[in-house]
Specification:
Elements: H1 3-12, H2 20-32, E1 39-43, E2 51-55, E3 61-69, E4 83-85, E5 88-90, H3 98-113, E6 120-125, H4 133-141, E7 146-152, E8 161-166, E9 168-177, H5 192-206, E10 224-232, E11 242-251, H6 257-267, E12 272-278, E13 283-284, H7 290-303, E14 308-312, H8 319-324, E15 327-330, E16 335-336, E17 344-346, H9 347-365
Parallel strand pairs: 3-6, 3-7, 7-15, 8-14
Antiparallel strand pairs: 1-2, 2-6, 4-5, 5-17, 8-13, 9-11, 9-12, 10-11, 16-17
Helix pairs in contact: 1-3, 3-9, 5-6, 7-9
Length: 367
């Protein structure tokens, strides 16, 4: 398997979340990479996005598992063809995260071809960018699946950092109800938009606003929220009778959904209610865990420099396995422009990540 070719091939598939035709073609391609060498399970349930599991052994209990996804956020046509400038490879999914999915698949081939005495698997979802509901269903229908170690390659940004903590993403819908009236006689109605503004203002008193135009907090490991979507009203001259907002909270391990709900209730006014759309769990790893330290040492040898631990606000599919007790090693390559038009990965970091994974798997197999 040529790592760069596989990565470039994966990026050519326009696997925007929900583009079932392209996702199916991509899954067929992934299955075809291994022929009969690997055990393959393609999970489908109703209209949910499919999940693919490839491994070197039967069953659902593994020593090591690499977890990631194949879907991407929307982009122009030109971004579904790689463009290389020096060490940088540009394109949708180069950083998030098809290059690193290719690394995981390369590791599986390495384990199979070298007959390493360990049970290794690659688990890839296809709707991570919109909630990983397909993966959730797969895990619910296969509760016995487990892995001692999970290699999470979906924390892209800097190969010189290992992520030790990820926040808990909690999505909340706020619904404000009012009474319609003509815009010239607001005293005859109740403006749902006004009620929404009051509630959002109250929320900001607890969770401050941060941006490039404001000073960043000294400690960024705090609970945050951004107002992802606000919709209210239909035409200019009618008082809005309904307004909805979608809020994206990121909670640290020191917080909780119950604490968030208590805060939300204190912010509401008459005619406004809230709904928890989705919530999960933070991923918190012990930085002194022997497996993580072994991986860190191997990574430092490959990179020929010291690497550090960091905390990030983004979510990851490995959270389900962290809840099961797996040791999650969150590490991937370097790049920038995730979800943007200038998305790129530093290709040497992809090759180094592949080398680190193989060395770790080889050392783990000796146990």
């Amino acid at each position: 398997m040529k790592l760069q070719k596989v990565a470039e091939d994966l990026i050519k598939f326009r696997t925007e979340t929900g583009n079932n035709a392209e996702i199916n073609k991509c899954l067929e391609y992934v299955e075809g990479l291994f022929g009969k060498k690997a055990h393959k399970t393609l999970y489908r349930k109703g209209k949910l996005a499919p999940v693919i599991l490839l491994s070197n052994s039967k069953g659902l209990k593994f020593d090591v598992m690499a977890v990631g996804h194949l879907d991407v956020v929307p982009a122009d046509d030109k971004m579904f063809k790689c463009r290389r400038e020096g060490n940088r490879v540009y394109g949708r999914g180069t950083l998030d995260m098809k290059s690193f999915a290719a690394v995981a698949l390369d590791s599986l081939e390495y384990v199979i071809d070298n007959n390493l005495p360990l049970k290794f698997a690659v688990l890839l979802s296809t709707d991570e960018e919109k909630g990983s509901f397909g993966l959730e269903a797969f895990l619910e229908d296969n509760p016995e699946i487990s892995s001692k170690i999970v290699l999470d390659v979906d924390v892209a940004g800097d190969i010189t950092k290992i992520v030790a903590k990820c926040k808990n993403p909690v999505f909340v819908k706020i619904i404000a109800k009012g009474i319609e009236a003509h815009g010239s006689t607001p005293w005859n109605g109740i403006d749902a938009n006004e009620k929404m503004l009051q509630v959002l203002s109250n929320i900001r008193k607890i969770y401050p606003y941060f941006s490039l135009e404001t000073a960043a907090p000294k400690n960024t490991w705090i609970d945050t929220v951004h107002f992802a979507k606000i919709e209210g009203g239909d035409v200019a001259n009618v008082i809005s009778n309904r307004c909805e907002a979608l809020l994206d909270f990121r909670l640290t391990e020191k917080s909780s959904v119950s604490k968030l709900e208590k805060n939300l209730k204190s912010c509401l006014v008459d005619g406004v209610e809230y709904e928890i759309v989705a919530s999960s769990h933070p991923v918190v790893m012990d930085e002194k865990n022997p497996y993580i330290w072994q991986y860190k040492k191997l990574a430092e040898n490959v990179l020929e420099q010291k690497i550090e631990f960091e905390y990030i606000g983004g979510a990851t599919d490995s959270r389900a396995f962290a809840q099961k007790g797996s040791v999650v090693i969150m590490h991937s390559g370097s790049g920038d422009g995730m979800h943007a038009s200038g998305e790129y990965v530093e290709w040497d970091s992809v090759e180094k990540l592949a080398s680190i994974q193989k060395q770790f798997l080889r050392e783990f197999a000796k146990r």
